[in-house]
Amino acid sequence: MIPFYRLARPLLFQMDAEKAHGLSVEALKRGIVPRVDVPIDHRLRVTVAGLSLPNPLGLAAGYDKNAEVPDAALRLGFGFAEVGTLTPLPQMGNPRPRVFRLPEAGAVINRLGFNNEGHATALARLETRRRKPGIVGVNVGANKDSADRIKDYVDGVSLFESLASYLTINISSPNTPGLRQLQTGEDLDRLLAAVVAARNGCAAIAATGKKPIFLKVAPDLSRDDIKEIAHAAATHGIDGLIVSNTTLSRNGLSETLAHRNEAGGLSGRPLFRRATWTLAAFRRALGPDIALIGVGGVEDARTAMAKIEAGADLVQLYTGLVYGGPRLPVRILNGLREILDLEGVSSIKEMRCRTTDKVLAAGPE
Fold first, then answer.
1. What's the pLDDT tens digit per position in 321-343?
2. Of 169, 185, 154, whose CA–CA distance to 240 is shortest?
3. Is-contact 292 241, C-beta < 8 A?
4. Backbone angles phi, psi at 331, to 5 degrees
5. In what order do the strands lie in the sheet with 265-268?
6. Residue 2: pLDDT above 60?
7. β-strands 107-110, 265-268: how paired?
8. How far is CA 190 from the centre of its chain?
9. CA-to-CA dists, residue 86 to 37, 160, 163, 272, 285, angstroms
10. Which region, left, alpha or beta, applies to residue 47 given φ > 0 means left and ψ of -120 to 50 means alpha?
11. Closest Cα to residue 25, out of 116, 130, 96?
12. Closest Cα to residue 275, out of 104, 60, 125?
């Protein structure tokens, strides 16, 4: 039987990329995605920042911007799902078209600009799954025209702390002007101090454990930037980093490739090396204890395992789904199991950091 997505993909790729994305979310909402048999293997189980996950593969933020289908995503085989990025007020984002496929490169360029329906709408949806199982993180951001962006992040943490398995502070989107300035200096210190205080305050009032806070960073960082961010994260007790968001670089893309020069962040296969080097650099700077989630160019079991070997505890993907379809998570999990069979290890945790030095020596490009 020809897989469902292989039949549907040519039709979807004739559509505007953002419209096709909306249809895929709607298909998950309506339950019309074919059933997936998810492998269960104790060797894939991981505990990270106090979270117990059935496997280390997650759905990155950006797919389910408005918290519409986190549980449907988990049923595809993901060990965890991240919704958002969510801003306090709804915003339309940048003008369309703003998402461009580059099939020859296995890549996507987007300049969406934190388009989402705002906190209130997502809060209502997440309230309906308050007692459901499954690890669902909430990724929060700032409105483009906000007078106080740090307050926007504090508001997001305060509002979603009781509903999220973990919270992600997204300061690395290239599509909101000035946002990446929060990655360095006094702005970063003030931001991290504020969101940690908000999280701690919520936990104290509820008399519950503190939810992990992850910081999502860009791949376009210098070695000095990485050292500064790592120091700030450790100083303020951030539980982990998500490395990385999309890149502004077009290195590795053919000069003749359609859409190559569109403005926005590049994701997918061309991002893999740069993002994995940045991941390894953060592992070296942070040491073994702070959690790292590797993102960027994960499209199969080989690339997922490469992130773990470079220093990741968990991995996430999004663009890979565009090209691999809804069965991709299961294919990756089965591939990871095969790698563990070959290596003869009892836990995927044993694979972490095997190639950190090698990745750093090879360089980011």
1. 999 999 999 999 999 999 999 99
2. 169
3. yes
4. -60, -40
5. 99-102, 107-110, 265-268
6. no
7. antiparallel
8. 23
9. 31, 10, 14, 26, 29
10. beta
11. 116
12. 60
CB contact set of 178 (below 8 Å; sequence gap of 6+)? none
Kindly list the catalytic residues.
173
Tokens of 261: 């020069």
| Cis, peptide link before residue 34, omega less than 30° from 0 | no
Q: What are the structural domains, with CATH classification, of the chain? A: 4-32+40-287+296-362 (3.20.20.70)
Distance, CA of 107 to CA of 105 (rounded, Å): 5
Q: Tens digit of pLDDT for each residue in 160-218?
A: 999 999 999 999 998 888 888 888 889 999 999 999 999 999 999 987 889 999 999 99
Q: Looking at beta carbons, which pairs linking 11-14 to residues 24 or more positions away fall under 8 Å? A: 13/101, 13/103
Question: Of 116, 109, 111, 114, which Cα lies nearest the Cα of 96?
Answer: 111
User: Using one digit for the tens of pLDDT, what is the confidence trace for 133-158?
Assistant: 999 999 999 999 999 999 999 999 99
Say whether 365 sits in a helix, a strand or coil: coil
Residue 1 is predicted with a pLDDT of 39
Buried b (16+ CB within 10 A) or exposed e, 253-266: beeeeebbebebbb
Ramachandran quadrant class, 265 (left: phi over 0; alpha: psi -120 to 50; beta: rest): beta
Buried b (16+ CB within 10 A) or exposed e, 164-201: bbbbbbbbbbbbbeebbebbbeeebeebbebbbebbee
Pair 59, 318: CB distance under 8 Å? yes
